[in-house]
Structures are given as structure tokens and as C-alpha cells.
Amino acid sequence: MSIFETLESEVRSYSRGWPVVFDRAQGSWLYSEDGKAYLDFFAGAGALNYGHNNPVLKKALIDYISRDGVTHALDMFTVAKRDFLETLNDVILKPREMDYKVIFPGPGGANAVEAALKLARKVTGKESVINFTNAFHGMTLGALSVTGNSMKRGGAGIPLVHATPMPYDKYFDGAYPDFLYFERLLEDSGSGLNEPAAVIVETVQGEGGINAARLEWLKGLSELCERHDILLILDDVQMGCGRTGPFFSFEEAGIKPDMICLSKSIGGYGLPLAITLVRPDLDVWSPGEHNGTFRGINPAFVTAAEALRTYWRDDELEKSTKAKGERVGRVFTELVDSYPESNLVAKGRGLARGLEFPDGEIAGKVCAEAFERGLLMETSGPDGEVVKLLPALTTTEEEIEQGLSIIKESVGAVLSR
Prior knowledge:
The protein is an alpha/beta fold. The protein has helices spanning 2-7, 14-17, 43-46, 55-66, 79-93, 109-124, 141-145, 150-154, 180-187, 215-227, 298-311, 316-338, 360-372, 397-415, and strands at 22-26, 29-32, 37-40, 101-103, 128-132, 163-166, 196-201, 204-205, 211-212, 231-235, 259-262, 275-278, 345-349, 352-356, 375-376, 378-380, 386-389.
């Protein structure tokens, strides 16, 4: 592995926790070059909801490449883009009575967020954006300005302005009514709060520690934005595409955001793709006003469309995701009860689950023990104190049980010391 240490930047992170060279992957498994199998409960940080090298998506991709289908096309019209847009509309948007225009902002989630922030400011003529404590929206400057983590924000090297954080759901453990501080500042002409163009929020804060907002809190936030004529941007980059059960993580709250950011698993196969959905009346861009070289990665359109057709024409995946998530939740609750002196907390929704430990050192040791036993999972939260699970939605029940068994062993090994 010396070539990585010699040539690759010190900024690398995941490879430090999993110091092996991976060679192959299939389904919920990664294989190192020496052939050892690792059960993957990381799934590309949520970019592989349908597993590694999903055979249905792989066939569509190979067929497209084999016939010399267009790979790169900027924002030109292609057959692959048309198929994706038609499938997105027919399978996802129309059945949910959702009316949005589709922006292709670039290859990653931060691109989707940047486009939403930029458009919200253009539409409203206002600069300020409201974000939330422990939020994570990306590593580019605009996305960092609405991100909470101080380490990540510090990497910007310049002041991150025009954004004001508000308390996320349960930030004060129920000591104050929802939005008491936020609404008071909005209504008080002496508060010093600049009138916001938009609010940006995650329904479940993945990088922030698997903090799942209550559905009534999300509904209350939507109503607040409507009352005060503030655009609501829903960042569904990591929690969308079925991660919490429904295709969009906010569906069960019954809200209709003004803008929705999607990336990661929208491409289906792990190929780069991001989209920003906006209400049609907000689509006020001039041609080329927001552009980029990699807005049309056609192989990702192919696998994205195939994933929607394969997994979202019925509710089978949604139901299985919820059932598997509830199983993980029960085991995490059992672990909380088994180690009362450790003050563990079970967190999450769907197949975005977390187990919070007293500090990041303990959580890191649990992940290290799991790695030695052949399971990949990461930590999240402001101090890395939460063991975070994002298994592929296609992970079998047997694989879920196998992973949970390793987790129980790993937690026991660390907490019994």
C-alpha cells in the first residue's frame, strides 16, 4: 500500500479505518485483493442503495456502452437523458402528484445544494439562508456555509457568511417549544436576523449523527416557511432514494418542498449524478447561468432510469427497507438496555441507523473491532461518537443478521474492557 501513502494526499479518510486494498464488489460485499470478504454496511456513504454491481443495472450499463451510447454530452439532448426524465416523471413524480423542473447541476450532492442556494437567492433577491445545528450539506464553500461541523467549516480558510444556524429537532431535548427561537427572531424587528431567502434541512442528519427529525417537526417547519414566505430546500442527497423507506425521506411528513436536492443513489450504480428539483415558477435561470462540464453523465442516466423502473414501480422495496430498519432498531435498543452504564442511544429511521456512544474514541474502537470481524461501518456526529449504518437496501435479511451479530460482538468486546 506504499503507493497510496507516497502519492495520495493526507486528506484521505475512509482508507485509514479500513487499511486494505479492495479489488471486487458484489451486492453487499467488498473483497480485498487477497480475497477476504467484508460485509458492507457503508454502501458508498449511501451512494449504493441497490448494492455493488447490481446485476440488473450492470446489464443495462454494459448494453449501453457496448452499442457506443453517448458518455459525455454536457447538457445536450440524448436518448439516455430523455429516458431518465420520462422514467423519473412517470415512476416517481406523477404518482406523488409532484410538479418540479429538473436541474442537472453537476456530478455530486454539493453541486445540487449549490444550485439550490444560488437559485433561491436569485429568485428572492435575498442573501441569508437558515440552516440547522449539526447539518451537513457538502464541502464546497456555499454548502459549507450551511454545514454545522466546525472541523469541516474550518477547512474553508475564509469566513463562511450569509447563513444562520437554528436548533434542529430535539437540540434542546424538548425544553422549548419547536421553532420558539426561530419564529421569535423572524417576527422581531430588533432581532438582527436578516430576512432569509430559504431554509435548508435534512430529514435525518446522516453526517451529523443520525439525528432523525420527527415528522411533526418537519411539517411545522414547512408551515413556518409558508407563513413567512421562505423557500424550503430539502437536502435528500443521502436520505433520499429509499434510504428511510419511501423514495423521498420527507413523504411521510406530507410536505412539498420548494426545492429538493438528490445525488448519491439517484444514479443507481454508484456513478456520479445529481439533480435539483425546483418548483416550475422558480426556474428563472438564464441559459448557461449555472453550468458545468459534467452535467450529463449518460451512463448514470441509464442506470438511474433502470433502478427506478426495477425498484420503484411498487412498494416492495419500501416495505422491506422499513422492516429491516426496524430489525436493526430493535437490536440497537437491546444493546442500549444491555449496557445501561454506558448511556448508549439508538437512533435513526429506515435503514439509516446509529448507535451513539459517550465519545468518539469508543465508537471508533467498535468500528475497528467490526472491521477485524469483516464488517464495514463508519462513525458520524460532531465528535464521531455515533456508529452509523447505511447498508444497501437490497441487503438480505440473512446479511442483516450477520452484520448485527458482528456489531453485538464488537460492542461487547469494547465495553467489557
